[in-house]
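Entry 14: structure prediction run for UPF0394 membrane protein XF_0765. Input pasted below.
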Amino acid sequence: MTTSPHIPGVHTESTSSTRAATGLLAYLLAGLYFGVVLVKSEAASWYRIQEMFRFESFHMFGLIGSAVLTGMVTTALLRLSGVRSRDGQAITVTSKDRGWRRYVLGGLTFGVGWGLAGVCPGPIFVLLGAGVWPILIVLACALLGTYLYGVLKDRLPH
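Run finished. Output tokens:
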């Protein structure tokens, strides 16, 4: 076992394995919490999503709007605070590329898939965990689409 050159007396092998285990546990708990929030807020409900696309309810628009606002505030705080990752690396948020085509085409593709499936990619595993077995078809199509993008990405406009 070797000691860390940066921290005297600290063993790197045990520290890194402990850090990896606690990191995985943190991600598992965060994912579980996110899944419960999606189910309880009805964000994974096909009926709520259809209400949104038919402009019959404000529920999903409010939910998405609050998520966008939270993301904007969090991104601004990350840029200003100089916070570091668990490994001590600086966290940076890079700006998006300018141009509209990739965002419009990507948004349309995402929206059509969301409208047809009745679910965006986030709740697929939540619905699977809730026992909604037909979502396996959506999961298979999402994986196929991801694979096809990987195969075709060099020929697509970016």
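Notes: The CA atoms of residues 44 and 123 lie 6 Å apart. Will compare against the previous run tomorrow.
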